[in-house]
Design goal:
four-stranded mixed β-sheet; 3 helices; 8 strands
């Protein structure tokens, strides 16, 4: 086996052994402040189910979602603007949201103004909420 393939194989094993959630600190840094600051990677967020419909009032979307017995504020729910073809949509996303077998839900609210700042009026007239809405509780 040549040296390049051996080094590549060792790098592959080293990469699989490390955790993506651990902080990365580079050794040999001359700046102590930079050495003490960990580098963390953002978690992938997925769309959440809106249970029982939703209401938008004063730029704030209010609804319910499955909470699995945990505090919904820990899930870092946020709104993102994206396009489905020519249709502008607001997508509500959060971390680690899965439907629980118990079906327990909890209320949450998201400020939409940050997602639609500087959006022209002709786009705001056509904007939709992209999340699936489950009306049965």
């Amino acid at each position: 086996m040549n040296k390049i393939k051996l080094i590549s194989l060792l790098a592959l094993f080293a990469a699989t052994a490390t955790s993506a959630n651990e902080a990365i600190v580079f050794p040999g840094s001359t700046n102590m402040a930079a050495a003490e600051t960990p580098i963390t990677f953002p978690q992938e967020k997925s769309p959440i189910a809106l249970v029982g419909g939703y209401q938008v009032e004063g730029g704030v979307l209010t609804s319910r979602t499955y909470n699995c017995g945990i505090n919904i504020s820990d899930l870092e729910i946020e709104a993102k603007l994206h396009w489905d073809g020519a249709t502008p949509q607001i997508l509500i996303v959060g971390e680690n949201l899965i439907m629980c077998r118990s079906g327990s839900t909890g209320p949450f609210s998201v400020d939409l103004t940050e997602s639609i700042i500087n959006t022209p009026a002709h786009i705001l007239d056509r904007i939709e909420v992209a999340n699936g809405v489950r009306l049965g509780l």
